[in-house]
Amino acid sequence: MQLLLSTWAEAEAYLKTSKGIIMPIGSTEQHGPNGLIGTDAICAEFIARRVGEATGAIVGPTIPVGMAVHHMEFPGSMTLKPSTLLALLRDYVSSLAEHGFERFFFINGHGGNIPTVRAAFYEIYAEQRALKGKDAPDLRCTLVNWWENADVGRLSKELFGAREGSHGTPSEVSVTQYAYPEAIKTAAMDPETAPAGSFYDARNFRSRYPDGRIGSAPGLASPEHGQRLTEVAVSAIARQYKSFMDEA
């Protein structure tokens, strides 16, 4: 059940049986020579919808732009300032909380979002308490990175070994190829596996990693790998969602 494809009456009926909602969040940024600019948002949305189907949870609208200032030397990338993203998350959660949602399960596709999203949770708690004191609703927010669980990690290692890397990875490219086979891109990779390392700002990122990859070999990606990764991620995250909802 997707919130955007539901009526207000359906949302009202849902709230009589559950206070939980899944919120996909990603980014709009470069992902190397063959990675789609929407990779992080696509992965989060694609997996979130299937977690919703597996758990009976309603799935909110995808937040497609995140904190990606370090990618801004690559055309097509978009970013929100951390303060903007924090304010957006606060308003999203507060709006839904007004209707009775209390459990917010964010499925994330972009590592750069993590610090801001976690900070936003505490801003939300603090604001609710400041406004309503002890009458504040029992809101709970959690963040799950789709790639960051033991099951996905094991499969990624089996498929790609040390060539997974940390940006423009074959895992995330594979998921997008499974989600959108009509949009598969091919490109030369030289070297096949990009150098690994760190960076500072956007200019430094492009200087060190001119094709946008970090430590990865996304030429290894395939829709078949994407299907396996999606299925493993959905199974693991569905269990996490159920545990989150069952907490006292």
Sum this structure up briefly.
α3 packs across α4 (114-132).
Percentage beta strand = 5-15%
Give the class from helix and strand content and strand pairing: alpha/beta
Order of helices and strands: HEHEHEHEHHHH
Name the poorly predicted regions: none
Number of strands: 4
Mean pLDDT: 97
Give me the side-by-side strand order of the main sheet.
Answer: 2-1-3-4
Instruction: For the record, give the distance between the C-alpha atoms at the N and C termini, rounded to a whole number.
Output: 25 Å
- Into which percent range does the helicity of residues fall? 40-55%
Q: How many strands, which pairing sense, and closed or not: the largest β-sheet?
A: 4 strands, parallel
Q: How would you sum up the global shape?
A: globular
Backbone CA Rg: 18 Å
Number of distinct helices? 8
What features would you highlight for this structure?
alpha/beta; 4-stranded parallel beta sheet
Give an account of the 3D structure.
The chain has 248 residues and is of the alpha/beta class. Helices cover 46% and strands 8% of the residues. The protein has 8 helices and 4 strands. The protein has a 4-stranded parallel sheet with strand order 2-1-3-4, sandwiched between helices. Helix 4 (114-132) links the parallel strand 3 (103-108) and strand 4. Helix 2 (39-55) crosses helix 8, helix 5 runs antiparallel to helix 8 (223-246) and helix 6 packs across helix 8 (223-246). The radius of gyration is 18 Å and the shape is globular. The two termini are 25 Å apart. The mean pLDDT is 97.
